[in-house]
Automatic annotation (TrEMBL):
<feature type="domain" description="Glycosyl transferase family 1">
    <location>
        <begin position="501"/>
        <end position="663"/>
    </location>
</feature>
<dbReference type="Pfam" id="PF13439">
    <property type="entry name" value="Glyco_transf_4"/>
</dbReference>
<dbReference type="InterPro" id="IPR029044">
    <property type="entry name" value="Nucleotide-diphossugar_trans"/>
</dbReference>
<dbReference type="GO" id="GO:0016758">
    <property type="term" value="F:hexosyltransferase activity"/>
</dbReference>
<dbReference type="InterPro" id="IPR001173">
    <property type="entry name" value="Glyco_trans_2-like"/>
</dbReference>
<keyword id="KW-0808">Transferase</keyword>
<dbReference type="Pfam" id="PF00535">
    <property type="entry name" value="Glycos_transf_2"/>
</dbReference>
<feature type="domain" description="Glycosyltransferase 2-like">
    <location>
        <begin position="1"/>
        <end position="131"/>
    </location>
</feature>
<protein>
    <submittedName>
        <fullName>Glycosyltransferase</fullName>
    </submittedName>
</protein>
<dbReference type="InterPro" id="IPR050194">
    <property type="entry name" value="Glycosyltransferase_grp1"/>
</dbReference>
<dbReference type="InterPro" id="IPR028098">
    <property type="entry name" value="Glyco_trans_4-like_N"/>
</dbReference>
<dbReference type="InterPro" id="IPR001296">
    <property type="entry name" value="Glyco_trans_1"/>
</dbReference>
<dbReference type="Pfam" id="PF00534">
    <property type="entry name" value="Glycos_transf_1"/>
</dbReference>
<feature type="domain" description="Glycosyltransferase subfamily 4-like N-terminal">
    <location>
        <begin position="317"/>
        <end position="490"/>
    </location>
</feature>
Length: 687
């Protein structure tokens, strides 16, 4: 329950909680004080002696900000299975919680449950209100004839809804840009949430017997309040609709202009006739249309992403995949994002795959005056004239800049500052120490002033970043280490996948397989993997090497394998989109990189129960230094690496133990649920 200056209703509401019948397993009430200035806290403290009650303070204004703060608290308790949300002016019936709990138990295939919301009128409502006001939209009341059963998610209202923990564990939170926030706001915080989770496959059920009474104050029966609610509903409706679903003009469905003229004429005629009821209905529709158009024309909501995620990108790699995952995390939390990168080979196919899951990508190629020395002054003028307006047109509220190398992405950081937008930086590699030139230094001091937070994918990456840029960071900037993640539902041990992959490669049943999922490029050093194979086959003649990936070295590697007499023992598997189908076929996963930002393939192997072996370089060290799921080998000592990998191949029990530990570590440290929660907490308060 979120409350803001709830002193007028809290005493009655909390007294009703004292009369609740406890469901099986008990219950707890968490009240999040959203910056109250009355004596709400004293009222809550007085009832804390009689109720299983916890008090939390959240100073950021907004009901949904308060609800998300409360969720962070209650989900820390592993015993929490069902989260019930309500309001500080909703009086529960004695068996309310029991009915919700029993309904959730009886319908395990459903994840969201709505209950009945009846009116608790502070004063008798006029007949015209009951006859002409849309009571559900205006007061959050449920229709009296709504029966038990599956229900449209938009009919589950915020004063009486229960949500299974699994929904929140999947990353869904309330959109903090919607709902009451102490000023003029767009309605739809709860319905936006329920519709998003419904799109993800979580179904809703209505439980008629779970009843609360929503207190309706006297001023809420007056015309100014009713028209204000209509405007707020229009604003919220705009945000929940998909752009381009119907023909639009000036960002608004064309039919609305005709509708506005009809409603305006109807309001005038009704006033002339003295038909107050008809005049109200027309004015309500006009207020709704006004709110919708206002939201469209001020560039809010769906017209622009909450976050613009951009970088200097030259290929589809680990950083780009992490940027897309960031967009998923933010979308689940109610913040739509736009991925904006340079075009690169395969970007069109990548964009199509993103679009299929509802993520947006657009080409964005600002002139590079930080990253490239030549023509730097000319490029900065071009950026000021053309790239700054281009960034503004996207309408984002925050820019996320991914840094892949020492200053690659700094031009986008400067652009965000020119647009007066706050910035989050993510660091995806270990940077080489570099001298900041007199040309760059003043621009960096200016650009870094927009940075509200920095996270790195590893502790080593953060140290390298700070060694170069700490002097430019605002002292208030939030710092965090948030690793890359792996989908542990897709990447998992699978005996059938192991057999299928080996059969596809044409390998003997008793073969040992070294696998390497990596781009065939210089920094990954696949030539060392072939050299290792040649040495290891003297001890393990049943050993094969599978290289999964493509790259500029492929032709040279094929020549190397042939000259070393290893041609028939090296399988070039090429690009594999569903890597999870082949990784279980490895006995070891090998990454012989000369440098790594993080090494996503390493944690993917661990999730598949495959021991991970990598060179002792930054990025891989951060994963495997204290891990029991694999081991590190010297980066530049082939003899020692051969000996250690040979010993591991000879020790089946150790490999099996490593596989079990690796899987457990992937679940505990790198799963989507774990990393997604870290990302959402990092962004908390920054957007």
């Amino acid at each position: 329950m979120a409350t803001y200056n709830g002193a007028p209703t809290l005493p009655r509401v909390l007294a009703a909680y004292g009369a609740l019948a406890a469901p099986d397993g008990g219950w707890q009430l968490v009240i999040v004080d959203n910056g109250s200035t009355d004596h709400s806290r004293d009222i809550i403290a007085a009832h804390a002696r009689r109720l299983p009650l916890r008090y939390v303070y959240e100073g950021r204004r907004g009901k949904n900000a308060a609800l998300n703060r409360g969720l962070a608290l209650v989900l820390e308790d592993a015993a929490t299975d069902l989260v019930v949300l309500t309001d500080d002016d909703a009086l529960p019936a004695p068996n309310w919680l029991r009915h919700l709990a029993n309904c959730a138990t009886a319908h395990p295939a459903y994840a969201v449950f709505g209950g009945s919301i009846v009116a608790d009128w502070a004063s008798p409502p006029p007949d015209w209100v009951l006859a002409h006001v849309p009571l559900g939209l205006t007061y959050g009341l449920t229709a009296p004839d709504l029966a038990d059963g599956p229900v449209f998610p938009g009919l589950v209202w915020g004063a009486n809804m229960a949500v299974r923990r699994a929904v929140f564990d999947a990353g869904y939170r309330f959109d903090e840009s919607l709902g009451p926030n102490g000023g003029e706001y767009a309605m739809g915080g709860e319905t936006s949430f329920t519709r998003r989770v419904a799109d993800a496959g979580f179904r809703s059920w209505f439980c008629r017997d779970a009843v609360v009474a929503h207190h309706i104050r006297a001023h809420q029966l007056q015309l100014p309040f009713l028209l204000q609610r209509a405007r707020r509903f229009g604003r919220g409706q705009y945000r929940q609709e998909r752009p381009g679903a119907v023909p639009e003009w000036l960002g608004v469905p064309r039919w609305m202009f005709k509708r506005a003229l009809i409603e305006a004429a109807g309001a005038v005629l009704a006033s002339v006739r003295g038909d107050a009821a008809a005049a109200f209905r027309h004015r309500w529709e006009l207020a709704y249309l006004h709110g919708y158009c206002r939201e469209a024309w001020r560039g809010a909501g769906r017209a622009g992403p909450a976050v613009l995620i951009t970088s200097h990108s030259g290929a589809l790699g680990g950083m780009e995949l992490r940027m897309a995952q960031e967009a998923r995390f933010l979308a689940d939390a109610g913040y739509p994002s736009l991925l904006a990168t340079h075009r690169f080979p395969g970007s069109a196919e990548w964009s199509a795959r993103l679009a299929a899951e509802g993520l947006r990508w657009t080409p964005f190629s600002p002139p590079l005056f930080f990253e490239q020395w030549r023509w730097r002054r000319w490029n900065r003028w071009r950026a000021r004239l053309f790239a700054v307006p281009a960034m503004r047109r996207h309408g984002a509220r925050l820019v996320h800049v991914a840094l892949c190398w020492t200053n690659y992405g700094a031009s986008a950081l400067w652009l965000a500052r020119q647009c007066r937008l706050p910035v989050v930086l993510s660091v995806h590699g270990t940077f080489a120490m570099d001298t900041i030139t007199p040309w760059h230094a003043p621009m960096l001091r200016h650009a870094f002033g927009a940075v509200g937070g920095v996270y790195a994918v590893s502790a080593t990456a953060m140290r390298h970043f700070l060694a170069i840029y700490q002097a430019y960071l605002p002292p208030t900037a939030r710092l965090a280490v948030i690793p890359n993640c792996v989908d542990t539902d897709r990447f998992q041990p699978c005996a059938q996948a192991r057999l299928t992959a080996r059969a596809h490669w044409g390998l003997p049943p008793d073969s040992l397989v070294l696998g390497c999922v990596a781009r065939l490029s210089v920094e990954k050093r696949p030539s060392l993997a072939i050299a290792l194979l040649a040495r290891l086959r003297r001890r393990h003649p049943q050993l094969y090497l599978v290289l999964v990936g493509t790259g500029p070295l492929e032709s040279a590697l094929r020549n190397q394998a042939e000259q070393a007499g290893m041609k028939q023992y090296v399988i070039f598997a090429g690009y594999v989109q569903q890597v999870e189908t082949v990784m279980p076929g490895f006995d070891l996963h090998l990454l012989m990189s000369r440098n790594e930002g993080f090494g996503i393939a390493t944690i993917e192997a661990m999730a598949c129960g495959v021991p991970a072996v990598a060179t002792e370089v930054a990025g891989s060290v951060d994963i495997l230094r204290d891990s029991q799921g694999g081991m590190l080998v010297p980066a530049n000592d082939l003899e020692q690496a051969t000996a250690r990998i040979g010993d591991l191949l000879a020790d089946l029990p150790l490999r099996e133990a490593m596989g079990r530990h690796g899987r457990a570590e992937a679940l505990a440290r790198y799963s989507i649920a774990v990393v997604g929660q870290q990302v959402r907490e990092f962004y908390r308060g920054l957007i």
